[in-house]
Amino acid sequence: MVTEKVNKNILISIVILISIIILCFVALVCNIRWDPFYKFFNKERDPENFRQRGFFEEGFYKEKLKNKEAGFKIIKKYNFDQNDQNIISYSLYGNNPKYFNPVHDNIAIVKKNLSDWKIRIYLHEDVPDDFRTKLINTGVQIFIVQDPLVKPGNSSGAFWRFLPMCEDVNVVIFDADDLIGKKQIKRIKNFFKQSKYLIRTAWIWPWPKNHIMAGNIYKKKELDLPFDKEYIMNYPHRSTFGSDEIFTTINIGDKLDKKIWNISNDGANYFYSIFVRNHVI
């Protein structure tokens, strides 16, 4: 009797465990395929669910492009040397130490480990003078940007860092709050000295497979992209959160010859990719 009861409990436990595994798998697939929780987890920074709708709601982004926003321009340069051939590009605006502190750390890291590279920072004209002076004194390239759209939380300033991609230089584009670690140093050295590819990007689910993370791009100078600086500086929609990655997807991901493009799964697993939808921008 006791044995039968034990066996029954074991069987129930096994059934419950299998059920939990199945439910977890179904939830994972649903999250990968439809990312149903995005609009809840990102309600503050993306209140109109722009990023998800821009990629997956047909016609939504095209309507946004019809209402042209103001452009930006470079009004001053510090420490610029046209002989610099290797540029790590950042955008900086506001006064949040979350973004300024890592940049200062990265300046020291690059000087120590990537001596043939120069950091270029696109800095908004309203950044406090003490921040500006401190950055200029490090010796890195500082480009002062006049942009009426920029404010903390939107993506307009994120477009500035794309400008070196239109120059005859090797360029790496990072987010300002990402610290350059040993892995990134190794990747930069290997890609620009050994890789057969002309551009390296990172992709994460649930975005389409030609999605390009705007804060993780390596581009060799011999690659000519199908746009110029004027196109970036006057792009019709930059303000809404996620606009920068829709821009890179449309203007780089959709137009590149895949033979020259190394797509990293840094933020994803190959298993995930089979569930990712085609975008309908």
Describe what you observe in this structure.
This protein is of the alpha/beta class and 281 residues long. The protein folds into two domains: 33 residues; 224 residues, Spore Coat Polysaccharide Biosynthesis Protein SpsA, Chain A (Alpha-Beta Complex). 39% of the residues lie in helices and 15% in strands. It is built from ten helices and eight strands. An eight-stranded mixed β-sheet has the order 1-4-3-2-5-7-6-8, with helices on one face. It starts with a helix and ends in an 8-residue tail after the last helix. The mean pLDDT is 85.
Structural class: alpha/beta
What's the total count of β strands?
A: 8
Main sheet record? 8 strands, mixed
**Taking all residues together, what is the mean pLDDT?**
85
Order of helices and strands: HHHHEEHEHEEHEEHHEH
Globally, the shape reads globular
Return the CATH class of the largest domain.
Alpha Beta
Radius of gyration, rounded? 22 Å
Strand ordering within the main sheet = 1-4-3-2-5-7-6-8
CATH superfamily of the largest domain: Spore Coat Polysaccharide Biosynthesis Protein SpsA, Chain A
* Separate helix tally: 10
Looking at CATH, which topology of the largest domain would you report? Spore Coat Polysaccharide Biosynthesis Protein SpsA, Chain A
N-to-C span: 65 Å
CATH architecture label of the largest domain? Alpha-Beta Complex
List the uncertain runs.
none
- Helicity level, as a percent range? 25-40%
Number of domains: 2
What portion of the residues fall into strands of 2 or more residues?
Answer: 15-25%
